[in-house]
Design goal:
Layout: E1 2-8, E2 13-19, E3 24-32, E4 40-45, E5 50-55, H1 61-72, E6 88-93, E7 104-105, H2 108-115, H3 122-138, E8 144-148, H4 158-161, H5 167-173, H6 182-198, E9 206-212, E10 216-222, E11 225-229, H7 250-260, H8 264-273, H9 276-281, H10 286-295, H11 310-335, E12 340-344, H12 345-350, H13 352-360, H14 371-376, E13 384-385, E14 394-397, H15 402-419
Parallel strand pairs: 1-6, 6-8, 9-12, 12-14
Antiparallel strand pairs: 1-2, 2-3, 3-4, 4-5, 7-8, 9-10, 10-11, 13-14
Helix pairs in contact: 1-3, 6-15, 10-11, 11-13
The structure holds adenosine-5'-diphosphate (ADP).
């Protein structure tokens, strides 16, 4: 089945056309600055290895979707003869609120329920709705499926998802831990479970998955089910991130609002966009921070390639390493054991120093890192083992692949539809 995987943002639309049987990706691309001046498409046809980049007017997501279909069916840059070859569309949806616990087929009722998720992730939900409606407009005959980032976390027990605020907050406003990056945690933990099974461990598997990117979350996964995760009611909870503060004493929120005269919206913006790596160092990209640390405290300034202050860069990463270690330790306790740690996403897949720091601080769990293997695991497309053969816990780098999970779920739901 040919599945078009769509990830709609407020002014962007990312897509991949995937054969769900062979899991071959035919094409991928992104439309950016939709509804603005200078909107453009960057499209790659991966079988022929050709790329097409062009500024094209796109006043809304439906325009962008029409251009995507034109690209996919283009004789030179496309990979299918006509739109009829697209069997299904799978949408990435950031927040399923209290309603969605698994992937679903789009229907008018489902769209209504998704509209009810606006409160939980306003910008994302609005963008997803635009993406869904754009597909309905451009290819009304093609079934659409929604795959939620929150769904994999819905197996958490009460003690993990319930916040000790008054009970009515849960009843009235559905305040609870929902988590995020679920599709990524699901993919990498699935790969890790297969590896454990091959090593003879099939029962009571205990895995901690560390998705460390611009946004970061850590999950405890026992027997394939999430039992806890670091992101919470929103993706602001948990560890320090590129621009988000993660968990802080809640009293700091009202204290800063009072001192700075911030409204709730402004405070929300501050915590989401002006904290984390950016707040501490002035830079939100982990590569810049790493560069400052490697340059050392006495390196002369480089006006052509400015970098963060050494002391602040060190501080920023010390906090990060410490917090990741604390989560892994806590989750090992929550599961009463640990079989494997997985590192994934931009930082998890590419930062050997962070992985080494975190794991060497957990040697009491019997974790041993293979330094050479760990140092080699940078920008590698394949699953790599980072622990030694004598390590009591497996440590792996597993490149995440949320699109494959979306394509698989979409194909499953749509093929069942065909059987009815
Ligand atoms: P997002 O949450 O936006 O999907 P990513 O998973 O792409 O984020 O992660 C972005 C982070 O990963 C950035 O901080 C970036 O510095 C880091 N990163 C990406 N590639 C590398 C690399 N080759 N080496 C070190 N860090 C990297």
């Amino acid at each position: 089945m040919k599945v078009l995987v769509v990830n709609a943002g407020s002014s962007s639309l990312k897509y991949q056309l995937i054969d769900s049987d062979t899991e071959v990706v035919f094409a991928r691309g992104i439309c950016e600055r939709i509804g603005q001046e200078g909107s453009e498409i960057d499209h790659r046809q991966l079988i022929k290895g050709v790329r097409y980049q062009k500024e094209m007017p796109m006043s809304n997501h439906a325009d962008a979707m029409r251009i995507v279909v034109d690209m996919l069916t283009d004789p030179a840059f496309g990979c299918i003869g006509s739109m009829a070859e697209i069997d299904a569309v799978g949408h990435r949806v950031v927040h399923g609120g209290p309603f969605f616990v698994e992937s679903v087929l789009v229907s008018p009722e489902v769209i209504k329920e998704l509209e009810g998720c606006r409160d939980f992730a306003p910008l994302h939900t609005e963008a997803h709705l635009m993406g869904i409606k754009a597909c309905l407009e451009v290819m009304p005959q093609v079934p659409e499926v929604l795959v939620f980032d929150t769904a994999f976390h819905r197996t958490m027990p009460e003690e993990a998802y319930f916040y000790p605020v008054s009970y009515d907050m849960y009843e009235k406003y559905k305040i609870r831990r929902y988590g995020a990056h679920g599709t990524s945690h699901r993919y990498v933990s699935g790969v890790m479970q297969d590896i454990l099974a091959k090593a003879g461990k099939t029962k009571d598997t205990k895995i901690v998955t560390c998705h460390l990117g611009n946004g970061s979350s850590i999950s405890a996964i026992r027997d394939g089910k999430v039992i806890d995760t670091s992101m919470g009611f929103t993706p602001l909870d948990g560890i320090e991130m590129g621009t988000r503060c993660g968990s802080i004493d809640p009293a700091i929120v009202t204290y800063i609002m009072d001192k700075k005269g911030f409204t709730p919206d402004r405070m929300n913006e501050y915590m989401n966009k002006e904290c984390g790596f950016l707040g501490i160092t002035g830079y939100n990209d982990a590569r810049d921070i790493e560069r400052a640390i490697l340059a050392g405290p006495n390196a002369p300034p480089d006006p052509d390639n400015p970098r963060p202050d050494y002391y602040r860069a060190r501080l920023c990463f010390s906090i990060l390493h410490y917090q990741i270690k604390k989560y892994i330790g806590a989750y090992a306790a929550a599961m009463n054991g640990l079989d494997a740690i997985v590192f994934t996403a931009g930082i998890g897949e590419n930062n050997p120093r962070l992985r080494e720091e975190v794991c060497s601080g957990l040697s009491f769990l019997g974790i041993e890192i293979d330094k050479e293997a760990n140092d080699r695991a940078v920008r590698q497309p394949n699953v790599l083992k980072l622990s030694t053969d004598t390590s009591k816990v497996f440590v792996y780098m597993i490149p995440t692949n949320e699109e494959i999970v979306i394509a698989r779920d979409t194909a499953k739901i749509v093929s069942e539809l065909g059987k009815k």
